[in-house]
Amino acid sequence: MDKFTLTIDGREITTTADKSLLEAALEGGIYIPHMCFHEDLRPEGACRLCLVEIEGVEGVKASCSTKAEKGMVVTTKSEHLEHLRHLAMELIIARHPAECTGCPKYLNCELQSNKQFIGGSEEVRVRKQIKPISVNDSNPLFTHDFTRCILCGRCVRACYELRGVGVVSFIGKGKDTNIGTAYDRLLMDADCRFCGACAAVCPTGSIRDSERYMEGKDKRKALLPCKNYCPVGIDVPRYVRLIAEGKFDESYAVVRESLPLPCICSYVCLSFCENDCRRGQINDPVGIRELKRFVSERHTDFWKRDLKPHEPTGKRVAVLGSGPSGLTAAYYLARKGHGVTIFEQDAQIGGMLRHTISRKRLPKEALEDDINEIINAGVEIRLNEGGKTIDQLFEEGYNAVLLAIGSTFSGPPALRFKDEDLNITPMGGIEVDTYNMATSREGVFACGDVAINGVTEDFIEYTKSEDYYEDFHESLIEGMVANRGDSYRSATIAIKSGKNAAEGIDQFLDGDGDLTERFASIEEEQSPILGREKGFSRLGRRADAFQRPVPQYAGMDPAGDALTEEEAVEEAKRCLKCNLRLKITPPKFWTEY
Questions:
Q1: How many CB atoms lie within 10 A of CB 391?
Q2: pLDDT single digits (tens) 510-540
Q3: Under CATH, what is the fold of the domain 312-508?
Q4: CB of 349 within 8 A of CB of 381?
Q5: CB of 477 within 8 A of CB of 452?
Q6: Which is nearest to 419 in space by CA: 394, 388, 456?
Q7: Which CATH entry fits the domain spanning 129-215: 3.40.50.300, 1.25.10.10, 3.30.70.20, 3.30.1490.20?
Q8: Which of 335, 319, 324 minimizes the C-alpha distance to 382?
Q9: In 269-363, which ranges are continuous DSSP H helix?
Q10: What confidence tens digit (pLDDT) does each residue in 337-349 have?
């Protein structure tokens, strides 16, 4: 679109014909106060805070609903405009509580920010008498405090325009006008999709995320918990959406972008994502692990369509141990072009995955499927080789060594290291919870669990006690340095440990440490329109009942039946699509201009 210039407050601003005067000013760094306007919504022009004067045009205009034109000369600050804004602000806050410090949005409120920008007296000459409304905390996920509502209508427009649901609207007439659902029904009974668009655009503390749900959590993680609480960061909303659309191969490709052992994890993952799934606050969390299993069991080689080979670097890495952390690190290092060899003391590859998890829980086919893909990536496997020392490996020409020998109790570890020789510490001073460790010896790294001086009988007895599950990740037991890997009995945490180790080793070998790959074909942009679906909030879980994760040996219970295609699609459609919330433009306050 052709660009042109206009003048705002004596400054030349470049913009395009699709922009309003308000948008042109904001993009040019000139702040004009506004309340009913939101970048993602159609302009309303109701609050009258964004009034401006245009040379050659009689009166004042709402800048949010006036298109920018070439050569315009616009004034945003004058005595007359200041007077009008003071009047408009008084009308807005006339129905708003005078006390703000008790509001959870205090110091993060658009109304408060605009009052500060406009200035003037705090006194309101006309205070509207409104019927007191108690805070409605009866809905899951959201709190409705309509005494703080200024009737800007942004939540109503978001529900209709952004999501196509339309369950929130203006209720009543005159001074009794409020915002709510028809017949004051609960959101669950009004067919709300619980997308959170209303809370995202609310400029005050009227509609907000429930403190009960958000307390003690990082807000961004709490708004998209399935992805942010997954140890390996799988784009859960994306692969679940693709299942709902019947694109099963694409869904599996999305899983593989973050997880090199998808078949294994679809059986033994402890489902941290489901533990915090926002859908679980309504009735039952989405069966995310079962959906992963569904696409893993029926996958094709579609995901390899965009698989690009990497140029060999000439560097070699020895990985000691073939548990989930060692397999993961080996896969990613091979994908970065390094020559990788796994040394395994046993006659079979898989480590704890093979030796401690029942085949009733983790089928042999799933184990072999993932391991074969590791081998196909170019990783060399050497079995029955547990006697090599680090010095021997360097003498054989390896440029880096990764210790991923685990804490297996079924026999002696592959190698026994002295704590004082290696001095294992968090890599780069990073906390151990980042699942990655380096050693004081250059070129030697560690991931998962590493046994120092072997595993003692005391440690074996300790692991049988309840105390172990309480403090194992904080304790330094004789003969053991734990890094929340295999000892946590969670394959996904061990995998994250291996991924971090691969990043560090690749950087050590002069690579960029970037393991990002895109396997799924580029699909159309996700539609933000959800539409109203009768009874959506009461849709029951089609997957097996969710059991909250606890520290345990993964896979003591047998695996249930797999979802059918119909069940998988229906289960995927229960997703709230929380990722759409994060695509709504956040507010910018005047201090940012």
A1: 9
A2: 999 999 998 887 667 789 999 999 999 999 9
A3: FAD/NAD(P)-binding domain (3.50.50)
A4: yes
A5: no
A6: 456
A7: 3.30.70.20
A8: 319
A9: 272-275, 288-297, 324-335, 352-355
A10: 999 999 998 899 9
